[in-house]
Design goal:
12 strands, 10 helices, about 20% strand, single chain, 3 domains, binds adenosine-5'-diphosphate, Heat Shock Protein 90, Helix Hairpins, alpha+beta, Beta-Lactamase
Length: about 475
């Protein structure tokens, strides 16, 4: 699960627990408080009513008092018993409903069905009326009277249900709001991490000198960025060492290999050597030649990595390409390759001449090396498009399968070992090409119909005239 979703759930969970506790307290208060008020009202009414009844003796109640008190009978369900358990007074409401009363000092609820119109009460849809009841034993003028008093709550029960529904709906809306707010807040919290991630992703082996900018706020993200930067420092240091080692090693190997090549070419000039020795010398000479190519390519690549030989000037690509193609004319003719060139004049880029030349040579050389078929062709084009120079190099041949197309730029990657070994390749040519393109802030793309042709596209930013 994504951290953003986790944070959202945590925030929602915590908010919901707090909301639930709050609702429970509020509901308890809102439900209990009216009952408490009712209970104390029943308590005081019971005492007032008994005093108002003023029973003369145990059995009789003054007539005038009952008339006056009957008006109260419309509001209360009331029965008063004397010490001998005889009913000495009851209100009109007791005629409609008989409540099952408990001898209990505390208030409680009883529901009774009273058909509509029977009493002036507001029944609910099921004709049910809930009463709040209290039963007291009240001493009055030396006698103990049992007072049973109840008050219809009419719609109170429904209101409580409404309240519970409202609280539930409220909680639901609260949860949805929390989810949305939590998701938003989580996004805000994680935004700097996403920024650090994007910046860290931009740092690769070619841009190891880049660092994540540290903000002024010295928080946890500052620590994370600074730790990552320290890690990049260490990586850059070891990469640099590795590149320097490869550069130094290839440089050191160059002279002895050149000497060996010289030795082989001298020895092979001799005509007095036995035939089998000449064959073996030819094989060894080939090995030395490949070693020479490899070391040169390694040296080229490592100097490119170390950016030591990058001296940008204004380069006329059309002129450069024409010269290179001219050099290849002979070998193309010998290989039966037909060359077609379409070039716009004066396409200038700001770049390193030697490296750009190396890039074109590698591409065209591959176009010759890997060309095959009956009608062998190479097409080179140069056009200026949207502030970019687009160079294409097309050649017929076996092409490159789509699954190989990303990998051919990797170091030492060769599509088929057999194809590459006969061509004498090292698997570094296209790596060098790609690196040169990148150093010029350009891009390289490839298109191929496997078994038929391949075309490389290079896009380089042009110099504005
Ligand atoms: P190499 O030194 O082996 O030519 P590259 O890096 O130049 O190494 O090329 C990598 C692989 O890509 C080659 O081994 C070859 O199989 C394939 N390749 C490169 N260019 C072409 C091309 N123009 N046509 C067909 N295959 C090619």
């Amino acid at each position: 699960m994504k951290i953003r979703n986790k944070i959202t759930l945590w925030i929602t969970g915590a908010g919901l627990v707090a909301g639930l506790l709050f609702s429970v307290v509020i509901s308890y208060e809102m439900i209990e408080q009216p009952f408490e008020l009712l209970d104390s009202e029943l308590d005081s009414q019971a005492h007032t009513l008994l005093a108002g009844l003023d029973p003369r003796d145990e059995r009789t109640v003054a007539q005038s008092e009952t008339t006056m008190l009957d008006s109260l009978g419309r509001l209360y369900w009331l029965k008063v018993y004397n010490g001998s358990q005889e009913l000495i007074y009851s209100t009109a409401m007791t005629k409609y409903v008989d409540l099952l009363l408990k001898r209990n000092g505390k208030g409680y609820n009883i529901s009774a069905v009273i058909p509509q119109g029977t009493a002036a009460l507001e029944q609910d849809d099921s004709n049910e009326v809930t009463f709040r009841v209290r039963v007291f034993t009240i001493p009055f003028r030396g006698q103990n009277y049992l007072v049973q008093i109840a008050r219809p709550m009419e719609k109170l029960q429904e209101e409580i249900i409404d309240l519970v529904i409202s609280i539930t709906v409220g909680l639901l809306l609260f949860t949805i709001t929390l989810l949305l707010a939590g998701y938003f807040v989580a996004g805000k919290i994680l935004a700097p991490i996403a920024r650090i991630n994007t910046l860290a992703k931009e740092i690769n082996d070619n841009t190891l000198d880049k660092r994540i900018p540290l903000g002024s706020n010295q928080d946890e993200l500052y620590t994370l960025s600074s730790s990552l930067n320290k890690m990049f420092d260490r990586l850059q240091f070891s990469f640099q060492h590795q590149k320097e080692f490869v550069a130094n090693a290839s440089h050191e190997l160059k002279t002895p290999i050149a000497m060996q090549r010289l030795f082989f070419s001298e020895v092979m000039q001799r005509t007095d050597l036995p035939g089998d020795l000449t064959d073996r010398l030819a094989t060894q000479s080939e090995v030395v030649l490949r070693m020479d190519r490899l070391v040169k390519n390694l040296l080229e690549l490592s100097t490119l990595e170390l950016k030591e030989t990058f001296t940008p000037t204004q380069v006329d690509l059309a002129q450069m390409l024409s010269m290179i193609l001219h050099q290849f004319e002979e070998i193309m003719q010998a290989s039966g390759i037909q060359l077609k060139v379409e070039m716009e004049d004066s396409v200038f880029v700001h770049g390193d001449e030697d490296n750009l030349r190396r890039m074109f040579i590698n591409l065209i050389d591959n176009g010759v090396k890997y060309n095959s078929g009956e009608k062998r062709k190479i097409r080179v084009s140069l056009v200026k498009k949207n502030k970019e120079a687009e160079i294409t190099v097309y050649n017929t041949g076996i092409g490159i399968a789509s699954e190989e197309q990303d990998r051919i730029f990797d170091q030492f990657y060769r599509v088929e070992k057999s194809r590459a070994s006969t061509s004498g390749g090292t698997g570094l040519g296209l790596t060098i090409v790609k690196r040169i393109v990148e150093l010029h802030h350009g891009r390289i793309e490839i298109e191929s119909e496997f078994g038929s042709w391949v075309q490389f596209y290079i896009f380089l930013p042009v110099m504005e005239s």
